[in-house]
Amino acid sequence: HTRDDQAETVLLGLARGSGTRSLSGMAPRIGKYIRPLLSITRAQTENLCKEVGLDVWHDPHNKDSNFARVRVRMDAIPTLEKTIGPGISQALARSAELLRQDADALDAWAQREIAALDLADLECEQLANLPQAIRSRIIRAAIYAAGAPSGSISADHVASVEALITAWSGQGASDLPGGVKVERLSGRLSLLRN
Asked: Which pTM value belongs to this model?
């Protein structure tokens, strides 16, 4: 993956209304996976291959406009470059790097909070006193700890639990994926799996 791929990832995330982690794009390294070309463009990569005698393979899917990523690559980014000015891909990749730093810091803060909590029995007042960015990470972790399938929790699910904390008006329980039920009882969030 190159800087161009990173820019496409960020623009797609923006279009979907994604959060900080998604907008941070692809990590240069996750476990055994390394992406050493994220700081250079696709054209620079292809030119380097030509210089050292490597054949460049072009995935035919990269020209199939049925894919949103291809439409971003072929239409959206060139239009932005034409109408706003050059450097859009570089700016989107820079934004991804800055957002990754923010997401890493917020995740670390949330993990410190989580380590001191019982995720099955959370005190609403304590959560309400935390910044929403931290609280939403705790809520998401609590829902998954209660048994929701990985990747099944949306922003709307988190918002329904957030309302139990910050907009309490006697509403009933939130039924979430995986049979997880979250309700407010005596100022506490109870997370159970049915």
From this structure: 0.84
Q: What is the pLDDT of residues 52-97, one digit of tens each?
A: 999 999 899 999 999 999 999 999 999 999 999 999 999 999 999 9
Per the CB < 8 A criterion, the answer to whether 110 and 138 are in contact is: yes
Which residue, among 1, 4, 11, has the nearest Cα to 99 in the 3D structure?
Answer: 11
Within 8 A by CB and 6+ apart from 183, the residues are 164, 172, 173, 174, 189, 190
Q: Mention every residue, 6+ apart, whose C-beta is less than 8 A from residue 58.
A: none
pLDDT in tens, 146-186: 999 999 999 999 999 999 999 999 999 999 999 999 999 99
Residue 157, token pair as written in the block: 């699910």
8-14, Cβ contacts within 8 angstroms, sequence gap of 24 or more: 8/69, 8/72, 8/73, 8/77, 9/96, 10/92, 10/93, 10/95, 10/96, 11/72, 11/76, 11/77, 11/92, 12/68, 12/69, 12/72
**Residue 121 backbone zone (phi > 0: left; psi -120 to 50: alpha; other: beta):** beta
H helix runs in 74-129, sequence order: 77-83, 88-115, 124-128
Given a contact cutoff of 8 angstroms between Cβ atoms, the answer to whether 20 and 103 are in contact is yes
Structure tokens at 108: 């670390």
Q: What 3-state class would DSSP assign to 107?
A: helix
